[in-house]
Amino acid sequence: MTQSNKFVDFMVRATRYNSVLTNCSKRLLLVKDFPNIYYENKESFHSMLERYFELGRDPIVFICTDTEGNSKLLHTLFVPHIREKFDINFISINPVTQVSMKNMLKRVSPILNSEAANMLHITQEHIDEILSNSIGDARNALLNIVFISLKVPKELVKNECTNRSESLGLLHGIGRVINPKRIQEENSWKFVHNPDEIAEYFQSQTTTFLYFLHENYLNTIRLIEESDISANVLSLGDVLNSEWRDLNLSKLSLSLCIRGIMVANESPVSGWNPIRKPQFDKNLAGNSLNNVENQWYKSLIDKDKDKNTTITSDVEMDEISD
Fold it and tell me: How far from 11 is each of 31, 49, 226, CA to CA, in Å?
């Protein structure tokens, strides 16, 4: 089956059967991701909508995040006459603020502590740590607070991965990387904050951490040579982090970028340097890597075409001369 047919089959079949756990009669179908085929074939998407409204029994909700690419897709697929035909409404949801995230965690924590008291115990320290790392993703915040609040058996407490002496926030971690502190030991030196320990804190936020480094690493670098080294390290880290087939490469890219920038920045600029939020979208960065790869393959194909054209023209000239 094609991707489009599989999606249509899912849409129709998902509303044909009742839940085996509850007898709830009021349901809706939630679609989080659009199949890639609809990005270029909007007519197929409109046909799918028409079939669903003929056979489907429950209301349907499409989630479309507010990014540049998704915004264009939203207005391409849900054009005015389609919205009027199927009576489709837009529901706009404001971004999650730090205050609302804090209130949500405080409201959910007592429920989790009472329902799963044998597995976890959420404290105010856990909530503060999650809030320092969250950037508006409520689902990720809930998953992380459950993970860090799990009760660890006594025999595993000595494990350094589960017994950290401090909680390190995202902005604090970025500050330690772009403004590294060194201590002299006889004829050598070492970092006050171990790069490997910083990398351990943010293994689940590799992409976000790298974006913050891109935005802020130049703030504390004095020399152009140091900025050149740091830029090359970050470029290599982006390439490694884009390889989704091996999860270990994302950890390697994080460790490489942290250590590379800290080593390159030998004399950081002193003074107050506020950490800025990245200004570019991760989808645009991914598209840029894809465009570079496509252009590289295209250049190889064009070279082969030029060679074949040259050989053909030489043969034709020999035939004419004969």
Answer: 9, 9, 54
Q: What is the mean pLDDT of residues 87-108?
A: 84
CA distance 168 to 178: 15
> Considering only CA atoms, which of 130, 278, 155, 300 is closest in space to residue 209?
278
Taking the C-alpha atoms of residue 33 and residue 31, their distance in angstroms, rounded to an integer, is: 6
Q: How many CB atoms lie within 10 A of CB 175?
A: 17
Q: Count CB neighbours of 288 within 10 A.
A: 12
Give the least confident one: 167-181, 245-259, 300-314: 300-314
Structure tokens at 215: 């935005």
Collect all residues with Cβ–Cβ distance below 8 Å to 100 and sequence separation of at least 6. none
What one-character DSSP code corresponds to residue 20? S
- pTM, rounded to two decimals: 0.41
Give the bridge partners for 190, in sequence order: 183
